[in-house]
Each structure stands twice: as structure tokens, then as C-alpha cells.
Amino acid sequence: MVDIAAARAELAPTGVLRAGVNMSNFLLVTGKDEAGGPVGVSPSMAAEVAKRLGVPLVKVPFSNPGLLADAAGTDAWDIGLIGADPLRSEKTAFTAAYCEIEATYMVPPGSRLKTIADVDKPGVRICVSARSAYDLWLERNIQHATLVRTEGLGGAFEMYLKGGVDALAGLRPGLIGDHPKAPGHVIMDGKFMAVQQAIGCGKTLMAGQAFLRAFVEEAKASGLVASFIAQHKVVGLSVAPAG
Q1: Contact at 8 Å (CB) between 200 and 207?
Q2: pLDDT tens digits for 113-160?
Q3: Measured on CA atoms in the order 8, 11, 14, 19, is the torsion positive or negative?
Q4: Is 163 in contact with 84 (CB distance < 8 Å)?
Q5: Rounded Cα distance, 126 and 164, in Å
């Protein structure tokens, strides 16, 4: 049995729930409200957490996931909605994923790189948005290719178009959105990983962790996550399997 009162005391000690939101994920934050606050699947998930805890919600925006992750333990947020990653887990306790997004590559016309496996070869240069969840995965798993990092998704796409790199790593929906600006370029089939979007909190907050984990599993099973994806008209976001 989840102790709501104990979870509320741990997750909202100031009487409000401060939710860190990654503004750079265009699938999870799809717009802004009249006050300029973020709107989308992850803000909706945060609002539902606050509702179930019985406290007001304050959305704390971060321009990229790295900054949100850096703020763990600094009292900047109570929960963080971000891609779960082992490196980030050093400071933050994560739920299982509530949704996931495929990450793959775009390559230029006529590229010798035809499959995901072709990309991790000596001499191959991969452009990637710095400190994104898939950048962290590539850092751990790429053995032969070279990662070329830029600031933000737009910066990575611009660098890729200028040449000097062999592939652009990105979320499949984002690559599909950029594809009209890169006619003839190829988005590879398959994925090199899937970004697991989860909810994190402080590692010492045991009641808070239990509440969030139970909430995420119920939200997936009940169709709540799917309803948020439909409500915000997001293409390319999938409900994650049961944790």
C-alpha cells in the first residue's frame, strides 16, 4: 500500500510540487499555455502527480535535459521528467519509463552507411545534440566512431547539413520532421536505442519513489499515458511496456 501522506511530505515539502520539465523535447512539450508555461505529455503527467498528491503544481522549465539533470539535489525541483539513464541515476531515483522514443540516424544521399551497425566504424563522425539521453547512450556504447557534439537539436541538424560528419543521431520523429529540409537524405530503419522517459526524484525519498513508481505503472495500464499522447496529438511517442 502506497502511503500518500508520506509521499506528499517527501515530494512536496514546501506545500507545492515543483516539476522540472525539459523544454527541448518537442514530443513531450508541444506548446505553451497563456502564462507561457509548458504544455504537453510530460507537463500533463506532472499535473496528474500533483493532483493525486493533493498539492498545487509549479512547472520549472529547463532549456535542455543536461541542465535539468545537473539540478538534481540542488532543491531546484521535487520531481524531474526526463530520459532515464544510468549516469543520471547516480543522483536521481527513476520510475520505469512511461513512454519511449526511438533514436536512429540520418545519413546523406549515397552514403556508404546503410544500416545501424555500419555507423560504428573507424573514421565515421556522428553529429549529436550534447547531453541528450541518446548522446549519453552513444558515449557508453560507441566503440569506433567519433561523436561530434553540438548545443541543441537545431544545432546538430545545421552542423550535419554543412558537411564534415557522416551521420546525424536523433529521435526518429525529429529526423522525420527535418527530412523535408534534407531531400534525398536517408533515415535509417531500426533504432540504436529508445529514450526511456521517466519521472525522477531524490534517491533518499523512499515513500516518494514508491508513490511515483506505482503511479507510472497505473498510468500506463489504465490508458492515461495513451490519452495524454492523443490529447496533445503527438506522433512518434509510444507508451512504454509495464515496468
Answers
A1: no
A2: 999 999 999 999 999 999 898 999 999 999 999 999 998 778 999 999
A3: negative
A4: no
A5: 10
Tell how far CA 100 is from the center of its chain. Answer: 8
56, pLDDT greater than 90: yes
Phi-psi region of 148 (alpha: psi -120 to 50; beta: other; left: phi over 0): beta
Give me the residue label for grid cell 511530505: 9
Name the helix (H) or strand (E) containing 81. strand 79-83
Q: Which domains, ranges and CATH numbers included, belong to the chain?
A: 4-99+197-239 (3.40.190.10), 101-193 (3.40.190.10)
Instruction: Give the pairing type, strands 38-39 and 57-62.
Output: unpaired
Rounded to 5°, angle at Cα 15 from 9 and 20 = 90
User: Closest Cα partner for 19 from 40, 1, 2?
Assistant: 40
Answer for the pair 53, 12: CB distance below 8 angstroms, yes or no: yes
Task: Provide the mean pLDDT of the chain.
Answer: 95
